[in-house]
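> Could you send the NADH-quinone oxidoreductase subunit C prediction when you get a chance?

Sure thing. Input:
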Amino acid sequence: MSTIQQETLAAILRRLLQNKLINLQMQRGELTIVVNAEDILGVSKVLRDDSALMFDTLIDLCGIDFLTYGDDLSVKYDLKDRRFAVIYHLLSIERNQRLRVRVLAENNEFPVVHSVTEVWPAANWFEREAFDLYGIVFADHPDLRRILTDYGFIGNPFRKDFPITGHVEMRYDEQQRRVIYQPVSIEPREITPLVIREDYYGDSESS
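Output:
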């Protein structure tokens, strides 16, 4: 998107969204807007339906955990101590324009964002993935279940405080003839790479 197109789109967004638009950023040819979690459904309908925008396609939706961002990045992106966010990547086929929307969940302990499945049905499985991996709850989702982990799985693997090894492991028990859960048997260890090089490695001549 050219600079002129960005500026034109930014002006339209400011006019249509007004006080619902918290922030607007133009970087590297990409436009990002930030809106409140409580406004995402209404904003989504405007982005899709207004003739000046027509963002009819949701390309992607993902969660983010800002736990380890640190104070500098928190100030830079105006996170205000919010830990979880949902990112929407939109495409207007009619106008050949793209837009990124960021929503910060209000509650770090129980992050909730309204579902946009009624606006973009493609959000269904994307929201289930963010729910599964980050624990972000999407209000009024038609079928909010885990999609990648097992139904009995405990925790959210993409949260930055989730252990790499997980909490439990699964194995097939011959006596019980079923899959069982048990505590993780992997012992944490520091991996030190072993590098073996031949004599005169990297030299053009060995003398």
